[in-house]
Amino acid sequence: MNRTKSAELFEIAKQIIPGGVNSPVRAYKSVGLNPPFIRSAKGSKIVDADGNEYIDYIGSWGPMILGHACPEVIEEIKKASEEGTSYGAPTEKEIKLAQLICSAVPSIEMVRMVSSGTEAVMSAIRLARGFTGRNKILKFEGCYHGHSDGLLVKAGSGALTTGVPDSAGVPLDYVRNTLTAVYNNCGELEEMFKVSGGELAAVIIEPVAGNMGVVLPDIAFLEAVRKLTREYGALLIFDEVITGFRLAYGGAQGYFNITPDLTVFGKIIGGGMPVGAYGGRKDIMNLISPNGPVYQAGTLSGNPVAMAAGIKTLEILRDNPLIYEDLARKAEQLEAAFIEASEKHGIPLSINRLGSLLSAFFTKEKVSDFKSAMKSDTEIFKKYFAYMLEAGIYIAPSQYEAMFVSRAHSAEDLEETAKAIDGAFGRL
Ligand code: HOZ
Asked: Helices marked H in 88-178 — which ranges?
């Protein structure tokens, strides 16, 4: 594939944007390639600056569940933008999106819109501290909750890909109150609660981890997290930036039937526009300014264009519940293609899939936490990635991200992808 134009753009970008990108994973450093610069996307396809077309399994890192440039969503964006793009004032659209979220997710009685998942997490943590009067929080190794200071500790996603799960520039004092525990390890968690449970404001967790690759939770582990937080008076925060409205309309909490105290959402509730939100029980949410003493604000919060895109996206998902079965079936097909190719070509592989979330790890061992995710052979991943890109399959340039299918992926897309997987595995 010729990517001359992308290469040229990357060189220019590197002069004026750190690393040439506005988010580190996009620089393709861990796969040793130049990133395609994207010109447009439609349905399941994404097109680069040289005109190369790829079948897209990143989907803007999850939110494009309806496919790119979904006509109904675009129509709403057009209408909304003709009415003005930002007011910094309340609108009826915010109420509508809040109502959609609250009726989809019963644990959410009130919700506050922000502009990104990072901002939502940061605010939810502040709120949990304000509510409990405690400082400490607990997160799990390999889970990523955005890039706010206190959470860049043993963080997954881009931090992991670039080999810096603990960032420079974060004063020790900021992370002194962040404890970390091993995902899926009930025994360790119980011990930690015995020592520090009474000091914890919150436990934050990705109910299905998606930022060390997809790692599925043991139900008993999620139940233990819920039980212990309740017992020790700490709040349970579900980070559903990836799972919300994707795993199921009611998110992972609906899927597993576990009720958190607070929930964080990201880009999917804006149909891919810059949106985040945090919500939960009324007695907690009412502590947020102006009702209470926990301050949080933002001019672009509840942005009318983003609200319009979010409302239409959630309405489509709500009115077409079979989408979730369709997505799961498609992801299952990909899973089968990976398994078949690994058996045929003798490639060590461990697949984690739940619904439409999927990761293929190049290891024979079951991947159930950060340590086992790290066993995946990233050199094999690199080769596999390069082949897939050449074959026109656009996947995350990192072993530690998820593969997302959308409503727009067709049977032909999946067949072509299965062929590419077989071709790639044959050359590893
Ligand atoms: N690493 C983040 C996704 N898990 C964001 C990647 C990006 O937008 O570049």
From this structure: 92-104, 117-132, 158-161, 172-175
